[in-house]
Input
Amino acid sequence: MDATMMSDGQSTTPETTHEESPAEAEAVHHRGGGAFFGRRRGKTLRPLQAVHMERDLPSLAIPTDLPPGTTLADLFARPMAAYRLEIGFGGGERLVDEVAREPDIGFIGAEAFFNGVAKATAAIAQRGLDNVRLYGDDVVPLLDKLPDAAFERIDLFYPDPWPKRRHWKRRFVRPENLSRIARLLPPGGRFRFATDVEDYAAWTLRHLLADARFEWTARRADDWRRPFAGWHGTRYEAKAIREGRVPGYFTFRRI
Output
């Protein structure tokens, strides 16, 4: 099984995790030395979201100036059995659902889009969850500060595919970021990836199959056609399916 076998008629129409209106559109933003390309802010926050951001985000947020030597245990108020990271959680629906179902797991959600952080903050506060922390900036500097083998699992779901060839260098799945992920996973740790864009699925498989630090766990087509166990889904995924795009769900094991 290889990257060329992903052919269920998926569209390569440029789609991003966040729906965009003219009022939300901004120029592409890139922090020097980091990995984030895209919009940082969208519509004005709803009044209740603004309240949660002011009142609750300070206790949830991981500071961008995280001191060297910080461990994941330092970021949580109580001991956790293990830790997981989601890179680019969008509006946080899927993340918050999993956080609520796994109270003994410590979750870190990273999302550079301000409005997505606001939605997640409100949902976390309303459900009284204490096993999640949020990072609202380019995730790469955070990854570089965290200790080796810190996470049992790292997730990247529906990242911006940057469909134009000249923009492929902006895709999060690229060798330097795979090295970061490999460092943060212990042997047996999992990296999970989901996309509805066939070209990005093939791109990701090419990169991961060529990396001796990872093994694709799929043994049959249904292993990547069916959602992950316990998958909650997202509003973006539902929209993609309505429009005829077929998601793929890929799991790679750290060797």
About this structure: The two ends are 19 Å apart (CA to CA). The longest strand covers residues 248-254. Confidence is low (pLDDT under 50) at residues 1-38. The CA atoms of residues 68 and 145 lie 6 Å apart.
